[in-house]
Each structure stands twice: as structure tokens, then as C-alpha cells.
Amino acid sequence: MTARTPRLSRLRRLTPGRGEDGVGRSGRRRGATPKVVALGGGQGLSASLAALRRITGDLTAVVTVADDGGSSGRLREELGVLPPGDLRKALAALCGDDDWGQTWARVIQHRFQSEGDLHGHAVGNLLIVALWEQLGDPVQALDLVGRLLGAQGRVLPMSAVPLELQALVRGHDPARPEDVDTVRGQATVALTPGEVLSVQVVPGDPPAVPEAVAAVLDADWVVLGPGSWFSSVIPHLLVPELLDALVETKARRVLSLNLAPQPGETEGFSPQRHLEVLARHAPKLALDVVLADEAAVPDRESLADAAKRFGAAVELAPVARQDGSPKHDPELLAAAYDRIFRMHGRIGPWR
């Protein structure tokens, strides 16, 4: 039990909960659909959300806020706001497959091409930041954008302040392959040469968004990953209140592995190596299931051994696109999640 447990107890009391009759805040009877919280950032989280919205009507995305590159980095530096890019991508992933949803998904993802200051800015980034300035409340603004888009779920930032990512990297300078340097900034960490040993965020004790903590505590299932391991997945474990919630929640926890190592931060990593570095950053975290693409696991026994350290079983399933690209197929990933939710100690009879 950590020093922050009283805070988590207060958040539990503030969580819009289920009554004794089993009816939740949305009016749905408990068990009708699993309450799922997905954590991550960038394209990995978007892939997970595109799959999860196909199998649950109660979905919350908790998104990293350490991005400092591109349009997000420019807006963050100029206006001092949370970086909106990964939040925008999550909202786009939650858009429906009808004309309204797909039109808005394209609009908010659209980037201006010009010779001026608007070049490279995404429409959705500008919309989100404009509403932040109008409303003065990041969560309320994101909820409003979600309603406009008809998003099939809710998007929340993991922290209330923009974060800087710092990494200890061995061999960042090829001329000094054994030296360990500090590399700063998510965009730099994601593509750094050398071996990333660990990451931290600045400030070192950032405040979690209360709604994100409450969502984790109230969930039936929590999904972590896939995504850039050191710059999108692990940062959630570096927000103390959010980590406490992930450790203490009664939800079942799924870790979704990437389809391939990423150039730069996880170059040469095996699937089990991903678990090892996760354990170093959050030794108290337990998992129930580790999901991996069956074609991406050359050593199943080693992965199973690494998963056991978290108390987790390994589920192997074909979740990659058939075109050979290292991208998840939303239908196949949805089928894998659905099977896991059904078979691994489901909490309610939502079928």
C-alpha cells in the first residue's frame, strides 16, 4: 500500500459508480458490456482503440502527454498547452465507420500544406487547443470534441501538465559506445541510436488527471500498449497516482505487445525484453494476459517465463495486417481482445 492510497480512496468515492441494482453511470446494466480503459499514445494506441470500439460501448483512452515534436511540439512551446497530437489521434480512432465518423476523422487528421506558419499543423490540434483556451478545462474540451465527432468512447490526458521525457542511453554517441548519456524529448528518444536503459519524466511527480485515475479504478479491463515502448507505453507508469491505480485496480490487465522492434528505442528487442524493461520501471505491476502476434514470437517459452513474473498468461493470435506491414489489423485485434475478455476471468456476463 503506497502513501497515495488515501488519495485513491477519495477518487473511488468520486467515481461515477454502479448502484446496487447494477446500473452504471451510462444507464446500462452492469455486465452489458465490459468497461475498458486503454493506455498508450500515437499509432499504437490508435490501433488498440480502433479494435476495442468494435467490441465495447464503454471505452476510455488515457493518452500520454510528453510529445514535443511536429505540430504538437510547436503548439506546446508557443502556448504552453498539453501536446494535442496523440489526443487527436485517439479521437480519430474512436470515430465511427459511418460517413459522419469517417469524414470527421479525415478532417481532424488533415494537415495544412503551405509556405507559412500553418504548414504541418493538424486541424484537430488547432481545434482542441482552441477549445482548451475557450473552456479552460482540458477534459471538458476533449469531451466536447468527442461529441462533435461522434466518438465511440472518451479520451483523457494521463497528466494535467505537459511532460518532458528523458532517457538514459548507452552508446548514443557511436564514438563512445559504452558511455551513458541523457537524451531529452520524446521525439529524440523515439529515434535515438544506442540502447535505451531507462526513462523518466520531468516533472518527476506529475499530477494525474483525476478522471483518468477514476476510470482505471472503475474498469473491468485495462489494456496497456501496443506503442512506442519507452515514449508511449512506459510513461504511464511514471505518473505516480496513475501507477498506483494500475496496481490497485480490481480490473484485469492486458499488455499488448508490438509486432516488431522499433528503429531507435527498441532496436533488437525480443518480445520478452519488452516485458523485462517494463518490470524495471514498475516492479509492483501485475498483469493477467500478455497478447502477442503468433508470428512475432520466435521463442514462446522465454516469453511465457517473462510473463509469469507478472503473473500473466500469454495469448498468441494473428493480429497483424496481411500486407506484411508491422501494423495491427483492427478486426483481428478486436477478435483477440474479445476472446481474452470472454475467456480470462470475465467480470460480468456482458454477452
General description of the model:
This protein is of the alpha/beta class and 351 residues long. The chain has 14 helices and ten strands. It starts with a helix and ends in an 8-residue tail after the last helix. It has helices at residues 5-14, 42-52, 70-79, 85-93, 99-109, 123-135, 138-149, 186-190, 210-218, 229-233, 240-248, 271-281, 300-308, 330-343; strands at 35-40, 58-63, 154-157, 164-170, 180-184, 195-202, 221-224, 252-256, 289-293, 313-317. The strands form two sheets. A seven-stranded parallel β-sheet has the order 3-2-1-7-8-9-10, with helices on both faces.
Report the C-alpha radius of gyration, rounded: 19 Å
Mean pLDDT across residues: 88
| Proportion of strand residues | 15-25%
What would you call the shape?
Answer: globular
The class by helix and strand makeup works out as alpha/beta
Largest sheet: 7 strands, parallel
How many distinct beta strands?
10
Uncertain stretches: 1-31, 347-351
Please give the share of residues in helix: 25-40%
The N- and C-terminal alpha carbons lie at a distance of 35 Å
Query: How do the strands of the widest beta sheet line up side by side?
Result: 3-2-1-7-8-9-10
Number of alpha- plus pi-helical segments: 14
